[in-house]
Amino acid sequence: MNKRLELPKTKDELYDLSKSFNSTFNRLEKSFNNHRNFVSTISHEFRTPLSILITELELAKELNKTIDDYKISIDNALEDANRASELSSALLDFARASYDISQINLKTIRVDEVLADAKLNVINKNGQYRVAIQYDNDVTSESSFFDMEGNPYLLQVAFVNLIENACKYSRDNTCNVKISNDDKTIQLHFSDNGAGIDSEDIPHIFDLFFRGKNKKSEKGNGVGLSIVHQIITIHNGKIDVKSKLGKGSVFLVSLPLEI
């Protein structure tokens, strides 16, 4: 995979063809390395909760344990099993979000309705989380200005991840969402009032399995924001983040009305 054609000294058709082959080999090598690293990282991520789960079950087999001891072991094992299940679901969403747009079913959807469903999804899973949606530019939730071509399932996955991320790191477990539009795009801002993101972490915030310096104490698998980035990208959208330490973060999403 690391072999390359030697370029001729004269820049003729053979030179162009050799250069084209080398460029293709470079892309294939990069893709192969990315795939190898991806599989290696997934194996590592699964190994941790599974190892803990096995340890808990082995301890539970020991004799002379009280009922309370067994309950603690079962609760710990269940927590680790749930963590592995959540990681599996997240990676499945990541795979779906990695498809080419031509392979995904698109239809006319209301982004504000997908956002409302995402809000309900988050609140139903965690009653402590609060989500406030603000419609900008004097647009109401009854407006049809938020129509666009997209995949409702994938966009809801993206919105759920952004809302949960904001709620988890906010001091009051609240995510504030502002939705607005213009002639060509729909914009959504997901804000929190948490600790913020270190400037050194921001360039890597959408990398798979990346966890920032001030996030490692929180539960998570480093997959959510990678999923969000993939989903927004395949909808030909853009996502950015602005953050101030001690003040919080804002994730800015822009989606085109037509893909």
TrEMBL record:
<keyword id="KW-0808">Transferase</keyword>
<feature type="domain" description="Histidine kinase">
    <location>
        <begin position="41"/>
        <end position="259"/>
    </location>
</feature>
<keyword id="KW-0597">Phosphoprotein</keyword>
<dbReference type="InterPro" id="IPR003661">
    <property type="entry name" value="HisK_dim/P_dom"/>
</dbReference>
<dbReference type="InterPro" id="IPR036890">
    <property type="entry name" value="HATPase_C_sf"/>
</dbReference>
<dbReference type="Pfam" id="PF02518">
    <property type="entry name" value="HATPase_c"/>
</dbReference>
<dbReference type="InterPro" id="IPR036097">
    <property type="entry name" value="HisK_dim/P_sf"/>
</dbReference>
<dbReference type="InterPro" id="IPR004358">
    <property type="entry name" value="Sig_transdc_His_kin-like_C"/>
</dbReference>
<keyword id="KW-0418">Kinase</keyword>
<dbReference type="GO" id="GO:0000155">
    <property type="term" value="F:phosphorelay sensor kinase activity"/>
</dbReference>
<protein>
    <recommendedName>
        <fullName>histidine kinase</fullName>
        <ecNumber>2.7.13.3</ecNumber>
    </recommendedName>
</protein>
<dbReference type="InterPro" id="IPR005467">
    <property type="entry name" value="His_kinase_dom"/>
</dbReference>
<dbReference type="InterPro" id="IPR003594">
    <property type="entry name" value="HATPase_dom"/>
</dbReference>
<dbReference type="Pfam" id="PF00512">
    <property type="entry name" value="HisKA"/>
</dbReference>
